[in-house]
Amino acid sequence: MNALIKSICRPLSLLALPGALGAATQRELRIEIELPELEVAEYHRPYVAVWIENERREWVDNVAVWYDTELRNREGETWLKDLRQWWRKSGRDLSLPVDGVTGPTRPPGRHELRFDSESASFLNLSPGTYQLVVEVAREVGGRELLRLPLPLNATEAVNISESGSHEIATVTLSLN
Amino acid sequence: MKHYPSLKLALALLLTAPFFALSVQAHRQWILPSTSVISGSDLWIGVDAAISNDLFFANHVAMPPESIEVLAPDGTLLEKQFVQRGKIRTTFELNLQQQGTYHIRRKGSTLFARWQEGEENKRWRGTLEELKTEGIADKPGVEIFRSLSRIETSVVVGPADIDAFELEGEGLELLPETHPNDLFVGEPVRWRFFQDGAPVSELELTFVRGNDRFRNQVEAITAVTDADGWIEVHFPKAGRYWMEGALRLDATQIDGIAMKRSYTYVRTFEVFPE
Questions:
Q1: Mean pLDDT in chain B?
Q2: How far is A44 from chain B (nearest CA, A)?
């Protein structure tokens, strides 16, 4: 299932300046996250946060957050703190849900997210060194965090893949 | 039939230990929340409070629940619910409805005195008022001690704002630059300590990770405050930690009565893996 996710436009984002490539450059970012099948006694779909950090590991923008949005009394938000790094860097200051960012949890398998520079402000960030961070936390399970370089100023197509060891199978990003 | 010494006596002995015992007393006071970083709203947490040797296993004596106060982010006192005081452990639960930092703390302020009447060693413990009305300051060769202790912890719902920490200006206190509910392995933690409202230098802080029962060494970490009261620590391992700092101060005049002072500061907190 390929969901075309529109990123939220944050009017206050001072970082979303047109980059060196300019707004004229059409860029597309594809992120594929593979969640592993796990042989465990009690399986819950994991919470997943995907965000962008600068070279100082400061939060820049949210890409996607999957959590239990269907529970009564917004009880799913109780476990967002288990996405520890995302929670401290962004989540605790957000008012949820965030349109275009938050969504329900997903089953094991491959999930693709697509963004283009027209709809996703983070593809127009000023030139710099960025990382895509993926954090996964599973109820009564483990937690894992992967960082991938996000070379927004690359002039050629980029394909980067990182493998996880337990809660994440792989994360692949393609920037065209 | 087993005979248990009364809690009051146990506490009295415990609190007087620094002054009357030659050996260092090993008991550690702690207030420990079931969780300290919280998302969502209208939640419950549990709190244990005890004085024990092991961290964090109650094995000695409970902390009196009435001595513990809980401050909500808006500064109001929050009611402790389901309060249970056992022999070795006090427990209660808290319903957290506000966003921000909650302070859970015990402030102790006690006077001790000792003197001799003939061959007999006399000991006394009480408040400043009692000290005056009982004329303790006039006893022959009396030594008076004032003990000020703060046993603290905090939990945070949503935003972790260090403005939630303020000085009261008495005893040992902590003003954090790094929020105590936002601590991770591999990241520097900068905290500043104060004595009676002024930065305190050369205060030694001892940090012990919980679950010490399952280690052969204490693995204590120590840090000493610099000239401006700062320490910077890195925690090598995730877990629950207990921190203590203590000062012995020379006699000072309080309401015209000379007293030696003992200040203690204790805090529990959690450190998370990256």
A1: 90
A2: 19
